[in-house]
Amino acid sequence: MLVYAAGDVGDALSQAEREYELKQVIVETLQLRDVTADTIDSEAPLFGSGLSLDSVDGIELALGIERHFGVKIDPSAESVTEIFGSVRALAEHLAAHGAWPSPEQS
Q1: CATH class of the domain comprising 15-96
Q2: DSSP 92
Q3: pLDDT value at residue 33
């Protein structure tokens, strides 16, 4: 499994690489059966339709993200629905909050 953590040395990751790593974290954290990182659509909703996560999954995922990426997501934040809207939205939020090195850091 290819996983990058905050502070890794090397080139900054592409958006697709960040999304793939996040998908791996989602699958592992939530112990999803019959779902792989390759089968998750980056633009599909995480809750309701799409991946069909529920509120308990959301809490577990937020904790897994904090453990893996070191980024805490405040569940009471007004933008939490947008942040967890899709893998793409979540990856963009994590990138903006230092989960991966930016091009200036690599």
Answers
A1: mainly alpha
A2: H
A3: 92
Rounded Cα distance between 40 and 37, Å, is 6
CA separation for the pair 102, 34 (Å, rounded): 33
Q: How many CB atoms lie within 10 A of CB 41?
A: 12
Domain boundaries, the chain: 15-96
Whole-model pTM? 0.83
The pLDDT of residue 66 is 95
Q: At what angle do helices 55-69 and 87-96 cross, to 10 degrees?
A: 40
> Residue 82: which residues within 8 A CB-CB, separation 6 or more?
89
Cα Rg of the chain (Å, integer): 13
Name residue 36's beta-bridge partners. none
Q: 3-state SS string over 32-72?
A: CCCCCHHHCCCCCECECCCCCECHHHHHHHHHHHHHHHCCC
List 53's β-bridge partners, or say none: 47
DSSP 50: T
